[in-house]
Amino acid sequence: MIRLANVSHDYGGRALLNGIDLHIAPGAFHFLTGPSGAGKSTLLKLCYGELRPSAGEIELFGQPLRGLSRDALADMRRRVGVIHQDCQFLDHLTLAENVALPFVATGRPVPEADLRELLSWVGLAGQAESLPPTLSGGERQRAALARAVILSPEVVLADEPTGNVDPEMSQRLLSLLVELNRMGTAVMIATHDLPMIRSAKSMVSARVLRIADRTLQTAGAEL
Amino acid sequence: MNALRALGGARPTPGFGDPARIVPSSGIATLLTAITAGAMAFLAVFALALSMSAGQLAQRWSSTLSQSATLRISAPPSEIAAQTAAVLEVLRTTPGIASTRVLDIDEQRALLEPWFGPDLPIESLALPRLIEIIEAPEGFDSVGLRLRLASEAPGAMLDDHTRWRRPLVQAAASLRALAWLSVALIGVMMAAMITLAAGFSLAANAQVIRVLRLVGARDAFIARAFTNRFTVLAVIGAVAGMVLGVAAFALLPVAGDSGFLTGLGFSGAGWFMPLAIPPLAGVIAWAATRTAAMRVLRQEG
């Protein structure tokens, strides 16, 4: 679905990623690790077209990113659910409205029953009318997950979804993502939460990728 | 909405999923837009009034002065009766003249009274004879008439008021052109102000744009979230400004029955002209905001 071939990315004139090859296949489960600043977020942004590579080819659902118009890229985002590191909500809208935003933003009626079911699934039914700034870190992350999957995307990209939540909440988010993967959605999680990666391995066959020295390596043996 | 009501006792938000609420409503830019549109609409009412008054003035001067002409016969007393008869014969056979009338002695006295008082012994003066000519709607050929008069009655002078009329009508026409230029400039100023306000609002709402891109909104949808808001505000502001401007004219004290200022303002169907201002303001706001939004979105990459 998402394919990177020999992709490089410069950041401020400095090479951040170099010669990256990556293929996210339907139903795959990937972890992306590496030290802070190694380029995990950058690699995810390359995967959903927010950043353009300085070299190499990126293919999204069979189409080269290079040739995509802005509208085509926007339409493609409907097939990729993104959980941003800092969630990115509209703080003046309620949680339910934020979760429903992908429907509103693409000009479609909000399926109220699905929305209710989704909010229950992430355990936020009681907070539907709350404003995002009043929610805890874990609640915000689960809301971001709900928003990322409301359009039933084919792949979910999550950037540090357990960045500032306690281990119990981290476990809960992981089980939601694993559940999603079992229903056929490909998942890629950028994280350095090693306990989460360990516990995931008992639930799903996950592949662990590691960014080191600007390149992507398969890790796993050490975990 | 029933589905949402079931969410742990949560009440549905009014206007849930309404795209108009995506951009936060607070903000100095939106307030400025409404105020600008109001002020510009107020000024536009005055410029419109000026242009319409200038038009009416030109028409009034043109029509009242052109429907009549004056013929003056200066001749020695012995010849005046004969020349008057000759002139009347010429006028009778000239096409385009509806009627003619020789002013009698009392009318001439009334004309001179402001200068010489009521006791002027007018009978003893060698006054020229005046003939008033009322034109038929199709008008007459004043050049041809002058030529005929020169041969038939050398003492007759035709004054068809063209000399007075032309500069007045030209002045009114220039005034009118200036007024329309003002209307156009007001439109340009409004477009410029709204472009700046929209640019400010787009910068202040960079987060909204980022989130909308993230969830798959196209540029046209994001631009619409801003254009809708600014268009509505501009129309509301323009309606308020237009109402105030028209009210100012309706309440303006009228300076007498005659004179230049009487013409300033709206009359008849002219009162409906300012109704065009709010829709026009809306169109300008829409175009200015959309241009600004699309430029920002394309720059963002």
Automatic annotation (TrEMBL), chain A:
InterPro entries linked: AAA+_ATPase, ABC_transporter-like_ATP-bd, ABC_transporter-like_CS, ABC_transpr_LolD-like, P-loop_NTPase
Residue ranges of the TM segments: none
Gene3D superfamilies: P-loop containing nucleotide triphosphate hydrolases
Name of the protein in its database record: ATP-binding cassette domain-containing protein
Pfam short name (any one): ABC_tran
Coiled coil: none
Record organism: Pararhodobacter zhoushanensis
A Gene Ontology molecular function term of the record: ATP binding
UniProt KW keywords: ATP-binding, Nucleotide-binding
Alphabetical list of SUPFAM superfamilies matching this protein: P-loop containing nucleoside triphosphate hydrolases
Location of the ABC transporter domain: 2-223
